[in-house]
Amino acid sequence: MTNTGFIIGAYPCAPSFHQKGEHEEQAFWRELADTPYIRGLEQPCLENLHPFGDEWLFRHTPGEWQIVVTAVMETMRRRGTNGAFGLASADEAQRKASVEYYRHLHHKIEAVNTRFPGKVIALEMQAAPQAGNASVEQATEAFSRSIREIAQWDWACDLLLEHCDSMTGPAPRKGFLPLQQVLDVVKGTDISVCINWARSAIEGRNTALPVEHVQAALRAGKLGALMFSGTATCGEYGEWQDLHAPFSSCCAESLMTIEHAKALFTAASAATLKFSGIKLLEINANANVNHRIAILRDGISAMNKATQ
User: Fold this and answer.
1) What are phi and psi of 28, to 5 degrees?
2) Helical spans, DSSP H, in the chain
3) 10-residue block means of pLDDT along the chain (308 residues)?
4) How would you label 71-101 residue by residue, b for 16+ Cβ within 10 Å and e otherwise?
5) Torsions phi, psi of 227, nearest 5?
6) What is the model's pLDDT at position 270?
7) Under a CB-based contact definition with an 8 Å cutoff, are residues 185 and 149 in contact?
8) Options 3.40.50.920, 3.20.20.150, 3.30.70.270, 3.30.420.40; which CATH number does 6-306 get?
9) What is the model's pLDDT at position 3?
């Protein structure tokens, strides 16, 4: 496949992720901007697209970089205080609150793309059910109502549902909607699915599951993107945690290898992907900028090898 560059979820490596100051943050983005094979960024959107504000992000990143917005960080932040928050929540008030948050994202993306046409290429949504409610049926029904509403809005970008590990898995981390139900709900819409390597592996505690998920999404005609985060069974990145461990070339305990990434791209080769990329975490809060950047450059190098 031809490589037009990758979408980089750089924010968990950024100094601001660990509440560091603007000076370090500036140095980080300056170094990242000098890194080849970057098509753009995966950015979370809370109130804004960056802790220092939208303007700050635009000022300190290359103008040609595109953005994939992800709702996951704000979804998890809200679920920290109210586990019922989410698009797939059977708690109607919290489901509506989640839809309203997506309305905020709609306005934000509209504003950015009006100013910089084509800047935001996609929004990654997540099907978060009501925590503590084990009914897949209720979660699916709630998610279906949310999607019917959101899909009617006039979006200035592609919509993708990022599959997170399922509530039916052996030891759920996020415990969101199972992939089959997601595929059923988005059938007949323009929404496609993004498979994240770690989130699928975590679901079954099985490194073969990401390929199965890619194949299922492909069969449904819904495979839209691939994102690569790692997981581990021991070490600093924990046991089957969703902590975006780097590739095994950079982190010895990581289960995510170049071979695993290659297998996913091979399985996905029949699909026209909207993007592919990495989201990796610097686990050490006091790491210097060089180490933070090294993790991302290693990830880009691994992706280049996996797509050759």
Assistant:
1) -60, -50
2) 22-33, 54-59, 72-81, 92-115, 136-150, 179-186, 197-204, 209-219, 258-267, 289-306
3) 80 96 97 98 97 97 97 97 97 98 98 98 98 97 98 98 95 95 97 98 97 98 98 97 97 98 96 96 97 98 96
4) bbebbbebbeeebbbbbbbbbeebbebbeeb
5) -125, 145
6) 87
7) no
8) 3.20.20.150
9) 53
